[in-house]
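User: Predict the complex with magnesium ion.
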Amino acid sequence: MTIDLGFWTLQTLNALQLSMLLFLLSVGLTVIFGLMHFVNLAHGALYALGAYFAASLAAVGGYWMGFFLAPVAVAGVGVLLYTGLIQRMRKSGPMAQVLVTFGLIFALLDLTRIFWGDLALAIEVPGILSGRLAFLGVEYPTYRLFIIVLGTAIFAALSLVLSRTQIGAMIRAGVDNDAMAACLGINVERLFFIVFCVGCALAGLAGAVAAPLLSVTPEMGLQILIPTLIVIVIGGLGSLKGAIAGSLIYGFVQTFGAVLAPQLASVLIYALLAAVLVIKPVGLFPAKG
Amino acid sequence: MLELNAINSGYGETQVLYGMSLCAQQGRVLAVLGRNGAGKSTTLKTIMGLLPTRSGEIRFEGKPIAKRSFDIAKAGIAYVPETRDIFPSLSVRENLEIAAKRFGGDGADWTFERVLDLFPRLGERLDNGGAQLSGGEQQMLAIARALLMNPRLLILDEPTEGLAPIIVKLIHDKLQELKAEGLSMVLVEQNFGFATSLADDVVVVSKGQVVWTGSAQDIRADEEAQHKWLGV
Ligand SMILES: Nc1ncnc2c1ncn2[C@@H]1O[C@H](COP(=O)(O)OP(=O)(O)O)[C@@H](O)[C@H]1O
Ligand SMILES: [Mg+2]
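Assistant: Here is the predicted structure with magnesium ion placed in the model:
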């Protein structure tokens, strides 16, 4: 194996691309978790739905239609889930929530099978994002660069909203102490609903942008769930910083592990997870210190 | 102004309040006294909608009180909890703004400038994180935040707990100013002297119900009640 600068650049970009995808998924889940102590294991299934919506919409109106409308459609599914199920389960404790949302994974899995069938779908990358760009001495797929840029932009936008706006302050207050936030006149339930919908939309967006990279199958939501949970456990519950840090750690360990120590790759991330849990059981940047 | 009628309430299976009844009058300060564990904090949490009432009725300004905490806050009750509950992820400024933005419309009594006049110390700390304050500063911030809600009724849970005597004195003077302006208050306290010098009316709570009712002068003169219910 010849290892040169191009190799490092290439793998770094691969790691960043994986990280950004995981970030889009984990940020919604972790903030929902932090704000309302609600465990939504079906978050990965929403990612799969995003990919399916994107594939179907792209077949009708092209890639960008899928890109913009899939998140909206997934947020719509989120609204149904919220009003039909989650709202009623807010006070039923983590065990019931885990069981119900775990069951939901399989219900959604079967629904995607019924609507879209078992065959994998493919989705075309739009013209301007196809091909490769010369970047720091390597030729890198433009589409993957696009994912990196998109993830970074969304991270920047979310941090701006969280740190600078009134609704951001309300969300942080709600994560810190929802009872006190309510005593200050904040409708924490409605806040949760908004955050939940944004989280669903981001999961849908992640599915839509991931769709061209891999084949769209019903199981993709299940496959992404474990990495997403690892990300939020490493990063610490409830915080944006934790989501980005956990995603970067996972992305880099996974990518470099796979090329530098292939025989160890599958256990590396779990070893890291165990190490983080021993040293800092609450994760690296939990919302509640 | 605020009326509790035969309230039963508690935490899950554990009942703590057994027929709690009390009445806070407009423009007056009601002190709620009683030993540790008597149910004082539980009473305030029940008023704020943080604990459900199992039976009985709470009325605020003549109407049944709202169920949800944020509606209760909007109806005009501000709460300073025993643990102060400053948001650690928010700066001091944000802790104040979060109340001011929601309740400080045009012509509001309490403004950002005015609470900083009341507690100048907070003005020096505006950009500090909520977690970086001393106990006294946290208490000032909790009171300032409550005032920015421009409440009609302020309820405070042991505002002097764990504070140095000089800060206790400061809090006392500030609450005295608020009282002089006619702000209605419910004050839960362990500090007998502090409470009775501020209060007009007093109720003493034991085992989840009111066992003594009277004026602040009455209880100061009633050594038997002090001894029996408060161990003073
Ligand atoms: N979160 C809780 N869960 C269960 N029991 C509680 C809780 N908080 C307080 N209690 C119990 O309720 C009783 C009254 O507590 P509290 O209202 O805090 O008393 P006080 O404020 O008068 O000191 C105590 O016996 C206490 O142990
Ligand atoms: Mg108490």
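Strands of chain B lie at 2-11, 14-24, 29-33, 53-60, 63-64, 77-80, 153-157, 184-188, 201-206, 209-215.
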